[in-house]
Input
Amino acid sequence: MKKTISSILRHLVLLLLAVVWLIPILWLFVTSFSGYKGINTSHFFPETWTLDNYAQLFFWSDSIVQYNRWFMNTLVIAIFTCLISTILVLMVSYTMSKLRFPGRKQLMSFSIILNMFPGVLSMIAIYFILKTFNLTNSHIGMIIVYSAGAGLGFLICKGFMDTISVSLSEAARLEGASEAKIFFRIIIPLSKPIIVYTVISSFLIPWGDFVFAKLMLNSGIATDWTVAIGLFNMLGKSMIAKYFSVFCAGGVVISVPISILFLIMQKFYVEGITGGSVKG
Amino acid sequence: MKKALSSIGNYFKDFGIAFVKGDVWVKVSAVLMGVGYIARKQVINGIIMFLVEALFAVLCVGYAAPNLAKFGTLGTVQFEQVFDPLTMTSTINDYDNSFLILLNSIIALFLILVFVIFWIANMKAVYRLQVRQENKEHINSFAEDMRALFNEKFHITLLTLPTIGVILMNILPILVLVAVAFTNYDQQHMPPSALFTWVGWSNFKNLFTSSVTVTFGYSFKKVLVWTLEWAVLATFTTYIGGILLAKFINNKKTKLPKMWRTLFIIAIAVPQFVTLLLVRNFFADSGIVNTFCNSIGFTDFLKNVGLVPANLSYIPFLTNPGWAKVMIVIINIWVGIPYQMLIATGVLMNIPEDQIESARIDGANPLQIFIKITMPYMLFVTGPSLITDFVKNINNFNVIYLLTQDVFVTSDQLLANSNAKEVDLLVTWLFRLTNEYYNYKMASVIGIIVFIICAAFTLVTFTRTIKGDKEEEFQ
Output
């Protein structure tokens, strides 16, 4: 008897916590169907239900809402970012993990320190450098911002490659395979899980980034924006009364694919943070 | 440290040997870089070296020299526009753009440094060729050299592109940031219409002085204290909370642990800017939470207790300094705990079960087990990431900016004078200084200070990470 009560209590606490964590998400979801455009301050659930907000996102573009464009912009940026980043990360992690050359340790230490330097700090300088090359307000500029320094984030991927037995590449080397061949034919196929992780995590960056996009895409032309900037703009002081529920709809639409990718990725997340030491 | 010094010493010693013991071809190579190769019948290598040298010479004359000549003053010719009423056109003089001079000079200095390293490497390589020839060893043909790039020199091939990216995106910006901190680059000195110049340490002095006109010292102290408070609070609340939640869910008595975990993860799977902007409206002065608190009489209760000023009819969740700070920490707990729970779950599963078992047999209660076994183990494994988290929180731009931008207005005149707010972290302050007030010089100084703080903590983590490096273990 005592056991059941404590068990019920335990699950009630969990339920309560889960509700606390999910209330904002639920609010996002229900408000996206609200017939009232502004913020409903008196009721949690909308009084009138409608699909107009979604229709406005996709079909009724105006000067404020260009959701299709934003989505395409972000998608293009994300695809190129993830391609370039993944290639750079693979190159660096393979070098650091499997090749031995003078200065390797020093280079690795240097990169780890450099990678801990927060990008937010140097963003003004990045902005001016890109402006000099006329790359602000351009998607190429955004792709460069997101992917150029990606090589520094090699640690997780390297940790994975470290676990691939060296005897495999040794055997290939005896058969006369070049280092390049070992890289493409042996290591890359064996690194599939970590490649999936790298692809997804770099693909997610442009969808979640707000700071750099705001700084770089500052022309005020709505068709240039990414989803994050477009949605942020809808909550400006003069807009919020007319666009809040549209913002929610936009938030839901972007969240669905991203949540799925995130859920796929999260099992690698832990290993990444603890640097593989979880293996104990 | 000693090792690093000796390796630097060896680097120059090798170069000295190459220069002293090299024959005439090696010595000529110091001036005409390709000669040493051509003398050993590596014609293509020689031609490439000549081309590199020629390219560098062209760059020096056409790019580096004109910029570096103005580097000392950052330009002297003011922007002028003369309108000619006859032709209805305006002519612009050949003005100096201080920022371009600064940027190009840094790039030029960098290129020169790279060339010097390249030149030293070239000398050594040419000398190595000489030694090989003297010993009658095989000298690679060009095709063999190329093949080496995919074999024993594969690391060079692989690292070239990433290195260029990192230099562009990480190293160059840091150098520019440091340089700008020593100039008077701000709204009154904006290229191209105005020039800016070197001012020495005066921006740093400004940051630490408080006077009637300059309040940066006052603001800096306040913002710094809050930044550190925030970083400590944010890190520990989410860390402890995450462990507790993970333990709670992983407990054998909890049914469907996977489902519970997923519920919490959903909350962080939605992009942060969406949830944060949403939560900010959730807690707005006229928001839904306030309506609710008002209707159940909670607002009046807080007024009676004195937590809410009597002249307000709402709870100033994100508009009053004290309330806003507490709310930001609480909302951050909401954002951060699921992440920490994920990590903690992974780590907790690996705690050696026998230790806990034997402790239980010895009569330890759950609390004792948690404090004496679980926590030390957790700290051992996640210690470095805890410090990384701390550094990340010092720079936690998203949470602060998205929750308070356009919402929080400071009433402290001294803070407002230097464009700071009570809830600002150093990074959000820096961001607003640049994005809204174009005060690049002070922003750069703040950037450097933050960098120093972060670097100090990072080095602590770093020595720990490297020591625990088990990379050879599996190979």
Remarks:
- The domain at 68-279 of chain A is CATH 1.10.3720.10 (MetI-like fold).
